[in-house]
Specification:
Blueprint: H1 4-40, H2 46-53, H3 60-64, E1 73-78, H4 98-115, E2 119-123, E3 137-144, E4 157-160, H5 167-185, H6 196-199, H7 202-206, E5 213-220, H8 225-230, H9 232-247
């Protein structure tokens, strides 16, 4: 038989239990809402600043503020464009024209660079704008012969202007392109077949002497044809990466 005291004790226990359950539910609801908010907010803004700034000593305001990018300006000469076809493969090797390869690669390179915020000029082989042309860098894009040459005929070649008033700039542009282009395309540098047409390239004498410039032969149209025709985006990305390495003064190798 329950006494009045027992009944009051039971009501007290149930009251405490009810309050405990209510408190637990409240905590759960808050946790769910918080999780929903943090997962629904974009990766930038308040949520990102809060998360990145908590517990690691970093400044939320510093994380959220974008760093202003320099105004980079680059010229790309499309080899043979507006002048002739350049090298041509025989029908047995696809009948491809160098100028078409050069244009596709240059256009893709322009798109990559623009995505980095770089202003890019596409120039013809003998463009009037080359006279006194001034920018952060100039790269003339070509592909190599489709003819069979005895010995090794795979790889890329790069030559720089010697007329630059700051030759160390042109040399650094060349080294950046050599490094990044090889890394992206998998091709090897072929320095033994660099020609006078490359080292004395006509545009080198036309542009402003402060503009560092190089000419690149992106690969041979026979043995490197798959890369040039089927994967021009890799060719373009290798060139763009080399240019950005130069513009942003990235290390060319761990030792530099």
């Amino acid at each position: 038989m329950k006494t009045q005291k027992d009944s009051q004790s039971q009501r007290s226990v149930w009251g405490i239990l009810a309050q405990t359950i209510k408190a637990i539910l409240s905590v759960c609801v808050v946790a769910v809402l918080a999780a929903t908010l943090f997962t629904s907010w974009p990766a930038t803004g308040i949520a990102a600043s809060f998360v990145s700034g908590s517990g690691n000593g970093s400044s939320p305001a510093g994380e959220a503020t974008a760093t202003a990018q320099p105004d980079y300006h680059v010229g790309l000469v499309v080899g043979h464009w507006g002048n002739d076809s350049g090298a041509v493969c025989p029908d047995s090797l696809g009948g491809y024209k160098e100028v078409d390869i050069n244009y596709i690669v240059a256009d893709l390179t322009q798109q990559y660079l623009r995505a980095y915020g770089v202003t890019v000029d596409l120039l013809k082989e003998f463009d009037d704008d080359l006279e006194g042309y001034e920018s952060n860098a100039l790269v003339s894009i070509h592909a190599d012969t489709c003819e069979r040459i005895e010995g090794h005929t795979s790889g890329f070649k790069i030559a720089e202007t010697k007329a630059n008033q700051r030759p160390e700039q042109a040399t650094r542009l060349l080294r950046c392109l050599e490094n990044r282009y090889a890394a992206v395309t998998g091709l090897s540098l072929d320095p033994d077949r660099i020609t006078v047409d490359m080292t004395e390239y006509h545009a080198f004498d036309e542009i402003h002497p402060n503009t560092p410039a190089v000419i690149i032969e992106t690969g041979y149209m026979n043995q490197d044809q798959y890369l040039l025709i089927k994967e021009p985006d890799r060719v373009a990305r290798g060139i763009a990466d080399g240019i950005m390495c130069y513009l942003k003064r990235e290390p060319i190798s761990p030792e530099e």
